[in-house]
Amino acid sequence: MESVLPGDPDTAPHRGRLNRAIKESLRDLGAQLSLLNHSVGTRLDLKATGGWIERGRDPSDRRGVVVQAARGRGAEILRLYLVDSGMNTAMDQICAGYEDKDLQLLTGFLRRTADAARTAAEKLTAS
Which of 69, 94, 97, 125 has a CB 3.0–4.6 Å from the CB of 74, allowing a cystine? Predict the structure, then answer.
């Protein structure tokens, strides 16, 4: 993969710029996915629920609530995210521009990032 930012890749400032660019990109991704979630929710009119979602007790926290797709509606919701929004096709097109070894690297990075986010959330919840 080619360098995203200019500069000597062997210097600490260059590494810092790359780290900041990754963090900034992940924050932007999070914001864009939140907007996608909002758009899907608006399309489904989730304020009225319309039979799209069910709320139930969180088995691990009696005060908590779990929100999930209503039985039999998961495929329709998934279709909105992946097909109607064009996200699935866009992701396939993005991935097509990378070699397998690059996709393996990205997969590992994203899984470790998700694990770090999960750990951070658990840490805040436990505090």
Answer: 69
